[in-house]
Amino acid sequence: MYAQMIKTASNSVKSRDEMSPEEAAFQDKIDNDIKIEPRDWMPEDYRRTLIRQIGQHAHSEVVGQLPEGNWITRAPTLERKMILLAKVQDEAGHGLYLYSAAETLGVSRDEMVEMLHEGRMKYSSIFNYPTLNWADIGAVGWLVDGAAIVNQVALQRTSYGPYSRAMIRICKEESFHARQGYHAIMKMAFGTPEQKKMAQDAVNRLWFPAIMMFGPNDSESTHSEQSMAWKIKVKSNDELRQQFVDQTVPQIEYLGLDLPDPGIKWNEERGHYDFSDPDWSEFFNVIKGNGPCNVDRMNARVKAWEDGQWVRDGLMEHARKRATRKVAAE
Amino acid sequence: MKNEWPLWEIFIRGQHGMSHRHVGSLHAPDADMAIKNARDVYTRRNEGVSIWVVEAKHISATAPGEKGPLFEPSESKVYRHPTFFDIPEEVGHM
Questions:
Q1: Which GO terms of the molecular function aspect are on file (chain A) (predicted)?
Q2: Which of A57, A142, B6, B8 is at a distance of 20 to 30 A from A216, taking alpha carbons?
Q3: What is the pTM (predicted TM-score) of this model?
Protein backbone atom coordinates (compact mmCIF):
# COMPACT_ATOMS: atom_id res chain seq x y z
CA MET A 1 0.00 0.00 0.00
CA TYR A 2 2.80 2.37 0.79
CA ALA A 3 4.12 -0.12 -1.72
CA GLN A 4 1.54 -0.67 -4.47
CA MET A 5 1.57 -2.77 -7.58
CA ILE A 6 4.85 -4.48 -6.80
CA LYS A 7 5.53 -6.93 -9.58
CA THR A 8 6.96 -10.11 -8.20
CA ALA A 9 10.05 -10.85 -10.24
CA SER A 10 8.78 -14.31 -11.19
CA ASN A 11 5.44 -15.02 -12.80
CA SER A 12 4.21 -18.15 -11.13
CA VAL A 13 4.59 -19.97 -7.85
CA LYS A 14 6.82 -23.01 -8.12
CA SER A 15 5.47 -26.32 -6.95
CA ARG A 16 7.52 -28.38 -4.53
CA ASP A 17 8.69 -30.73 -7.31
CA GLU A 18 10.09 -27.84 -9.34
CA MET A 19 12.14 -26.45 -6.45
CA SER A 20 15.88 -26.97 -6.06
CA PRO A 21 16.96 -28.30 -2.63
CA GLU A 22 17.96 -24.77 -1.66
CA GLU A 23 14.60 -23.37 -2.70
CA ALA A 24 12.76 -26.09 -0.82
CA ALA A 25 14.77 -25.44 2.35
CA PHE A 26 14.05 -21.72 1.96
CA GLN A 27 10.30 -22.32 1.53
CA ASP A 28 10.33 -24.60 4.59
CA LYS A 29 11.75 -21.79 6.70
CA ILE A 30 9.07 -19.41 5.44
CA ASP A 31 6.30 -21.93 6.06
CA ASN A 32 7.58 -22.44 9.62
CA ASP A 33 7.70 -18.67 10.23
CA ILE A 34 11.48 -18.62 10.57
CA LYS A 35 12.67 -15.18 9.52
CA ILE A 36 15.06 -14.83 6.59
CA GLU A 37 18.15 -12.80 7.50
CA PRO A 38 20.42 -10.81 5.17
CA ARG A 39 23.19 -13.37 4.78
CA ASP A 40 20.89 -16.40 4.43
CA TRP A 41 20.46 -17.96 1.02
CA MET A 42 17.41 -16.59 -0.81
CA PRO A 43 16.03 -16.87 -4.35
CA GLU A 44 17.13 -13.98 -6.54
CA ASP A 45 13.48 -13.13 -7.26
CA TYR A 46 12.74 -12.89 -3.52
CA ARG A 47 15.63 -10.44 -3.15
CA ARG A 48 14.60 -8.36 -6.15
CA THR A 49 10.93 -8.22 -5.16
CA LEU A 50 11.84 -7.14 -1.64
CA ILE A 51 14.17 -4.39 -2.86
CA ARG A 52 11.32 -3.07 -5.00
CA GLN A 53 8.75 -3.29 -2.22
CA ILE A 54 10.86 -1.95 0.67
CA GLY A 55 12.40 0.71 -1.56
CA GLN A 56 8.97 1.91 -2.67
CA HIS A 57 7.81 1.90 0.94
CA ALA A 58 10.86 4.00 1.94
CA HIS A 59 10.29 6.48 -0.89
CA SER A 60 6.66 6.83 0.21
CA GLU A 61 7.72 7.82 3.71
CA VAL A 62 10.06 10.48 2.38
CA VAL A 63 7.75 11.87 -0.34
CA GLY A 64 4.95 11.72 2.25
CA GLN A 65 6.70 14.49 4.15
CA LEU A 66 5.90 16.96 1.37
CA PRO A 67 2.10 17.31 1.63
CA GLU A 68 2.37 17.73 5.41
CA GLY A 69 5.52 19.82 5.47
CA ASN A 70 3.49 22.19 3.34
CA TRP A 71 1.42 23.14 6.43
CA ILE A 72 4.09 23.40 9.16
CA THR A 73 4.43 27.15 8.81
CA ARG A 74 0.65 27.62 8.76
CA ALA A 75 -0.46 25.36 11.61
CA PRO A 76 -3.24 27.04 13.58
CA THR A 77 -1.48 26.94 16.98
CA LEU A 78 2.06 26.53 18.26
CA GLU A 79 1.10 23.19 19.79
CA ARG A 80 -0.26 21.86 16.48
CA LYS A 81 2.89 23.11 14.77
CA MET A 82 5.15 21.23 17.18
CA ILE A 83 3.06 18.07 16.78
CA LEU A 84 3.17 18.31 13.00
CA LEU A 85 6.93 18.91 13.06
CA ALA A 86 7.37 15.80 15.21
CA LYS A 87 5.23 13.77 12.85
CA VAL A 88 7.05 14.89 9.72
CA GLN A 89 10.36 14.17 11.45
CA ASP A 90 9.09 10.67 12.23
CA GLU A 91 8.41 10.12 8.53
CA ALA A 92 12.05 10.91 7.74
CA GLY A 93 13.03 8.34 10.37
CA HIS A 94 10.65 5.78 8.88
CA GLY A 95 12.23 6.32 5.49
CA LEU A 96 15.63 5.73 7.04
CA TYR A 97 14.62 2.49 8.79
CA LEU A 98 13.25 1.18 5.50
CA TYR A 99 16.19 2.25 3.35
CA SER A 100 18.44 0.49 5.88
CA ALA A 101 16.35 -2.68 5.60
CA ALA A 102 16.56 -2.56 1.80
CA GLU A 103 20.30 -1.95 1.96
CA THR A 104 20.82 -5.30 3.67
CA LEU A 105 19.74 -6.83 0.32
CA GLY A 106 22.70 -5.37 -1.53
CA VAL A 107 21.42 -2.07 -2.93
CA SER A 108 22.59 1.28 -1.58
CA ARG A 109 20.35 4.13 -0.47
CA ASP A 110 21.84 6.53 -3.00
CA GLU A 111 21.15 4.01 -5.77
CA MET A 112 17.51 3.74 -4.67
CA VAL A 113 17.16 7.52 -4.51
CA GLU A 114 18.55 7.83 -8.04
CA MET A 115 16.16 5.14 -9.29
CA LEU A 116 13.27 7.12 -7.82
CA HIS A 117 14.47 10.31 -9.45
CA GLU A 118 14.89 8.60 -12.80
CA GLY A 119 11.34 7.22 -12.57
CA ARG A 120 12.52 3.61 -12.24
CA MET A 121 11.00 3.31 -8.75
CA LYS A 122 7.69 4.60 -7.44
CA TYR A 123 6.06 5.82 -4.23
CA SER A 124 2.49 5.52 -2.97
CA SER A 125 -0.19 7.13 -5.16
CA ILE A 126 -1.74 8.89 -2.15
CA PHE A 127 1.03 11.49 -1.93
CA ASN A 128 0.15 12.81 -5.34
CA TYR A 129 -2.96 14.43 -3.89
CA PRO A 130 -2.72 17.99 -2.55
CA THR A 131 -3.33 19.14 1.04
CA LEU A 132 -5.48 22.18 0.40
CA ASN A 133 -6.20 23.33 3.95
CA TRP A 134 -5.70 22.51 7.61
CA ALA A 135 -8.55 19.99 7.68
CA ASP A 136 -6.63 17.96 5.10
CA ILE A 137 -3.71 17.66 7.51
CA GLY A 138 -5.99 16.15 10.13
CA ALA A 139 -7.58 13.86 7.56
CA VAL A 140 -4.19 12.72 6.23
CA GLY A 141 -2.97 11.76 9.72
CA TRP A 142 -6.20 9.97 10.53
CA LEU A 143 -7.05 8.30 7.19
CA VAL A 144 -3.75 7.94 5.37
CA ASP A 145 -1.67 6.98 8.38
CA GLY A 146 -4.64 4.93 9.60
CA ALA A 147 -4.61 2.97 6.34
CA ALA A 148 -0.84 2.65 6.58
CA ILE A 149 -1.15 1.16 10.07
CA VAL A 150 -3.56 -1.53 8.88
CA ASN A 151 -1.03 -2.57 6.25
CA GLN A 152 2.02 -2.23 8.44
CA VAL A 153 0.61 -4.16 11.38
CA ALA A 154 0.16 -7.09 8.99
CA LEU A 155 3.67 -6.62 7.64
CA GLN A 156 5.21 -7.01 11.08
CA ARG A 157 4.85 -10.72 10.31
CA THR A 158 6.59 -10.50 6.95
CA SER A 159 9.27 -13.12 6.30
CA TYR A 160 12.32 -10.88 5.88
CA GLY A 161 13.82 -10.09 9.31
CA PRO A 162 15.07 -6.53 8.72
CA TYR A 163 11.75 -5.52 7.05
CA SER A 164 9.74 -7.03 9.87
CA ARG A 165 11.82 -5.25 12.52
CA ALA A 166 11.47 -1.93 10.68
CA MET A 167 7.67 -2.45 10.63
CA ILE A 168 7.56 -3.11 14.36
CA ARG A 169 9.46 0.08 15.09
CA ILE A 170 7.34 2.09 12.66
CA CYS A 171 4.03 0.80 14.03
CA LYS A 172 4.98 1.96 17.52
CA GLU A 173 5.34 5.51 16.22
CA GLU A 174 2.54 5.43 13.68
CA SER A 175 -0.35 5.34 16.11
CA PHE A 176 0.71 8.78 17.35
CA HIS A 177 0.26 9.94 13.75
CA ALA A 178 -3.26 8.61 13.38
CA ARG A 179 -4.38 9.86 16.78
CA GLN A 180 -3.04 13.39 16.34
CA GLY A 181 -4.86 13.53 12.99
CA TYR A 182 -8.15 12.36 14.42
CA HIS A 183 -7.74 14.80 17.30
CA ALA A 184 -7.26 17.68 14.85
CA ILE A 185 -10.35 16.63 12.85
CA MET A 186 -12.40 16.24 16.04
CA LYS A 187 -11.61 19.83 16.92
CA MET A 188 -13.02 20.92 13.57
CA ALA A 189 -15.98 18.55 13.40
CA PHE A 190 -17.11 19.78 16.83
CA GLY A 191 -16.20 23.41 16.06
CA THR A 192 -18.01 26.13 14.12
CA PRO A 193 -20.27 25.20 11.18
CA GLU A 194 -17.54 26.43 8.82
CA GLN A 195 -14.97 24.21 10.49
CA LYS A 196 -17.30 21.24 10.35
CA LYS A 197 -17.84 21.87 6.65
CA MET A 198 -14.08 21.86 6.08
CA ALA A 199 -13.72 18.58 7.95
CA GLN A 200 -16.50 17.03 5.84
CA ASP A 201 -14.93 18.28 2.65
CA ALA A 202 -11.52 16.82 3.58
CA VAL A 203 -13.04 13.42 4.39
CA ASN A 204 -15.02 13.46 1.14
CA ARG A 205 -11.95 14.20 -0.95
CA LEU A 206 -9.52 11.85 0.81
CA TRP A 207 -11.73 8.81 1.35
CA PHE A 208 -11.35 7.18 -2.06
CA PRO A 209 -7.64 7.98 -2.45
CA ALA A 210 -7.16 6.43 1.03
CA ILE A 211 -8.92 3.17 0.19
CA MET A 212 -7.03 3.03 -3.12
CA MET A 213 -3.81 2.87 -1.09
CA PHE A 214 -4.32 -0.87 -0.62
CA GLY A 215 -3.97 -1.41 -4.37
CA PRO A 216 -6.28 -3.01 -6.95
CA ASN A 217 -8.90 -5.64 -6.10
CA ASP A 218 -7.54 -9.12 -5.50
CA SER A 219 -9.16 -10.29 -8.74
CA GLU A 220 -7.04 -7.73 -10.64
CA SER A 221 -3.89 -8.07 -8.59
CA THR A 222 -1.94 -10.51 -10.72
CA HIS A 223 1.40 -10.60 -8.94
CA SER A 224 0.35 -11.30 -5.37
CA GLU A 225 0.49 -15.06 -5.39
CA GLN A 226 4.26 -15.49 -5.16
CA SER A 227 4.56 -12.62 -2.68
CA MET A 228 1.98 -14.32 -0.46
CA ALA A 229 3.77 -17.67 -0.74
CA TRP A 230 7.01 -15.97 0.31
CA LYS A 231 5.19 -13.99 3.02
CA ILE A 232 6.50 -10.75 1.57
CA LYS A 233 2.83 -9.87 1.60
CA VAL A 234 0.82 -11.26 4.49
CA LYS A 235 -2.75 -10.21 3.75
CA SER A 236 -4.45 -9.50 0.43
CA ASN A 237 -5.36 -6.00 -0.77
CA ASP A 238 -9.10 -6.58 -0.30
CA GLU A 239 -8.71 -8.07 3.17
CA LEU A 240 -6.72 -5.05 4.32
CA ARG A 241 -9.11 -2.60 2.66
CA GLN A 242 -12.11 -4.21 4.36
CA GLN A 243 -10.35 -4.03 7.71
CA PHE A 244 -9.67 -0.33 7.20
CA VAL A 245 -13.26 0.44 6.20
CA ASP A 246 -14.64 -1.51 9.17
CA GLN A 247 -12.52 0.36 11.67
CA THR A 248 -12.96 3.80 10.08
CA VAL A 249 -16.73 4.04 9.50
CA PRO A 250 -17.58 4.22 13.22
CA GLN A 251 -14.90 6.88 13.63
CA ILE A 252 -16.58 9.00 10.94
CA GLU A 253 -19.95 8.49 12.59
CA TYR A 254 -18.59 9.58 15.97
CA LEU A 255 -17.57 12.89 14.41
CA GLY A 256 -21.16 13.44 13.24
CA LEU A 257 -19.96 13.72 9.65
CA ASP A 258 -21.75 12.24 6.64
CA LEU A 259 -20.24 9.07 5.21
CA PRO A 260 -18.15 9.99 2.16
CA ASP A 261 -19.57 7.11 0.11
CA PRO A 262 -23.34 6.45 -0.21
CA GLY A 263 -22.49 2.80 -0.79
CA ILE A 264 -21.28 2.30 2.80
CA LYS A 265 -23.76 0.05 4.53
CA TRP A 266 -23.48 -2.51 7.34
CA ASN A 267 -23.88 -6.02 5.95
CA GLU A 268 -25.25 -8.19 8.73
CA GLU A 269 -24.62 -11.38 6.80
CA ARG A 270 -20.94 -10.72 6.12
CA GLY A 271 -20.33 -8.98 9.44
CA HIS A 272 -18.60 -6.20 7.50
CA TYR A 273 -19.41 -2.86 5.90
CA ASP A 274 -20.16 -2.90 2.20
CA PHE A 275 -18.67 0.02 0.29
CA SER A 276 -18.27 1.29 -3.26
CA ASP A 277 -15.28 0.54 -5.39
CA PRO A 278 -13.12 3.60 -6.03
CA ASP A 279 -12.64 4.77 -9.58
CA TRP A 280 -9.75 2.54 -10.53
CA SER A 281 -9.05 4.43 -13.74
CA GLU A 282 -8.11 7.39 -11.51
CA PHE A 283 -5.77 5.15 -9.52
CA PHE A 284 -3.96 3.86 -12.61
CA ASN A 285 -3.78 7.36 -14.00
CA VAL A 286 -2.14 8.68 -10.82
CA ILE A 287 0.30 5.74 -10.77
CA LYS A 288 1.19 6.54 -14.37
CA GLY A 289 2.24 10.02 -13.27
CA ASN A 290 -0.87 12.06 -14.05
CA GLY A 291 -2.12 12.79 -10.51
CA PRO A 292 -2.59 16.39 -9.36
CA CYS A 293 0.86 16.63 -7.71
CA ASN A 294 3.15 14.01 -9.32
CA VAL A 295 5.33 16.58 -11.06
CA ASP A 296 5.58 18.87 -8.01
CA ARG A 297 6.53 16.00 -5.71
CA MET A 298 9.28 14.71 -7.97
CA ASN A 299 10.63 18.19 -8.63
CA ALA A 300 10.76 18.89 -4.90
CA ARG A 301 12.64 15.64 -4.22
CA VAL A 302 15.13 16.12 -7.03
CA LYS A 303 15.72 19.74 -6.00
CA ALA A 304 16.35 18.76 -2.38
CA TRP A 305 18.77 16.05 -3.51
CA GLU A 306 20.66 18.32 -5.88
CA ASP A 307 20.71 21.32 -3.54
CA GLY A 308 22.10 19.12 -0.77
CA GLN A 309 24.82 17.59 -2.90
CA TRP A 310 27.53 20.10 -1.93
CA VAL A 311 26.73 19.63 1.78
CA ARG A 312 27.03 15.83 1.54
CA ASP A 313 30.23 16.11 -0.48
CA GLY A 314 31.69 18.74 1.85
CA LEU A 315 31.04 16.71 4.98
CA MET A 316 32.57 13.64 3.36
CA GLU A 317 35.66 15.58 2.32
CA HIS A 318 35.98 17.04 5.83
CA ALA A 319 35.74 13.54 7.32
CA ARG A 320 38.45 12.28 4.93
CA LYS A 321 40.78 15.17 5.77
CA ARG A 322 40.33 14.68 9.49
CA ALA A 323 41.00 10.96 9.18
CA THR A 324 44.21 11.64 7.21
CA ARG A 325 45.37 14.21 9.75
CA LYS A 326 44.70 11.79 12.58
CA VAL A 327 46.77 9.08 10.91
CA ALA A 328 49.61 11.58 10.31
CA ALA A 329 49.59 12.62 13.97
CA GLU A 330 49.85 9.03 15.17
CA MET B 1 28.54 5.69 -5.93
CA LYS B 2 30.71 8.77 -5.53
CA ASN B 3 30.88 10.26 -2.05
CA GLU B 4 28.23 7.98 -0.60
CA TRP B 5 28.38 8.27 3.19
CA PRO B 6 29.48 5.06 4.95
CA LEU B 7 27.05 2.94 6.94
CA TRP B 8 27.17 2.92 10.76
CA GLU B 9 25.59 0.46 13.16
CA ILE B 10 23.91 2.08 16.15
CA PHE B 11 23.80 0.74 19.71
CA ILE B 12 21.71 2.39 22.42
CA ARG B 13 21.74 1.94 26.19
CA GLY B 14 18.06 2.15 27.05
CA GLN B 15 18.43 2.74 30.77
CA HIS B 16 21.23 3.02 33.28
CA GLY B 17 22.37 -0.45 34.25
CA MET B 18 21.40 -2.05 30.93
CA SER B 19 23.80 -2.98 28.16
CA HIS B 20 23.90 -1.24 24.79
CA ARG B 21 21.65 -2.92 22.23
CA HIS B 22 21.74 -2.82 18.46
CA VAL B 23 18.83 -0.69 17.23
CA GLY B 24 19.58 -0.12 13.54
CA SER B 25 21.90 1.66 11.17
CA LEU B 26 22.33 4.94 9.35
CA HIS B 27 24.65 6.78 7.00
CA ALA B 28 27.02 9.51 8.17
CA PRO B 29 30.33 10.96 6.98
CA ASP B 30 32.09 10.37 10.30
CA ALA B 31 31.59 9.14 13.88
CA ASP B 32 30.59 12.54 15.28
CA MET B 33 27.84 12.96 12.71
CA ALA B 34 26.76 9.34 13.17
CA ILE B 35 26.20 10.04 16.86
CA LYS B 36 24.29 13.26 16.11
CA ASN B 37 22.11 11.49 13.55
CA ALA B 38 21.55 8.51 15.85
CA ARG B 39 20.37 10.87 18.55
CA ASP B 40 17.81 12.37 16.14
CA VAL B 41 16.68 9.09 14.64
CA TYR B 42 16.79 6.58 17.46
CA THR B 43 16.15 8.53 20.69
CA ARG B 44 13.19 10.75 19.89
CA ARG B 45 11.03 9.16 22.59
CA ASN B 46 13.29 8.64 25.60
CA GLU B 47 14.76 5.45 24.17
CA GLY B 48 18.27 6.04 25.37
CA VAL B 49 20.84 7.41 27.81
CA SER B 50 23.96 6.51 25.81
CA ILE B 51 24.89 5.84 22.17
CA TRP B 52 27.65 3.78 20.54
CA VAL B 53 28.33 3.94 16.81
CA VAL B 54 30.50 1.51 14.86
CA GLU B 55 31.21 1.71 11.17
CA ALA B 56 29.49 -1.32 9.66
CA LYS B 57 32.59 -2.48 7.76
CA HIS B 58 34.38 -3.10 11.08
CA ILE B 59 31.87 -5.72 12.21
CA SER B 60 32.78 -9.37 11.60
CA ALA B 61 30.04 -11.96 11.77
CA THR B 62 29.55 -15.71 11.73
CA ALA B 63 28.38 -17.14 8.42
CA PRO B 64 24.85 -18.62 8.32
CA GLY B 65 26.38 -21.92 7.10
CA GLU B 66 28.44 -22.25 10.28
CA LYS B 67 25.35 -22.28 12.46
CA GLY B 68 25.36 -26.06 12.94
CA PRO B 69 29.01 -26.65 13.87
CA LEU B 70 29.12 -23.55 16.05
CA PHE B 71 25.91 -23.72 18.03
CA GLU B 72 24.59 -27.26 17.94
CA PRO B 73 27.24 -28.74 20.29
CA SER B 74 25.82 -26.80 23.23
CA GLU B 75 22.36 -28.32 22.71
CA SER B 76 23.55 -31.69 24.05
CA LYS B 77 25.27 -30.29 27.13
CA VAL B 78 22.29 -30.19 29.43
CA TYR B 79 24.54 -30.60 32.50
CA ARG B 80 25.59 -26.98 32.04
CA HIS B 81 22.20 -25.91 33.37
CA PRO B 82 21.43 -25.89 37.09
CA THR B 83 18.15 -27.73 36.55
CA PHE B 84 20.09 -30.84 35.44
CA PHE B 85 20.91 -31.64 39.08
CA ASP B 86 18.25 -32.93 41.44
CA ILE B 87 18.97 -31.67 44.93
CA PRO B 88 16.93 -33.24 47.76
CA GLU B 89 14.34 -30.96 49.25
CA GLU B 90 15.86 -31.37 52.75
CA VAL B 91 18.94 -29.50 51.57
CA GLY B 92 16.82 -26.43 50.98
CA HIS B 93 17.28 -23.65 48.46
CA MET B 94 20.50 -23.77 46.47
A1: phenylacetyl-CoA 1,2-epoxidase activity
A2: A142
A3: 0.92
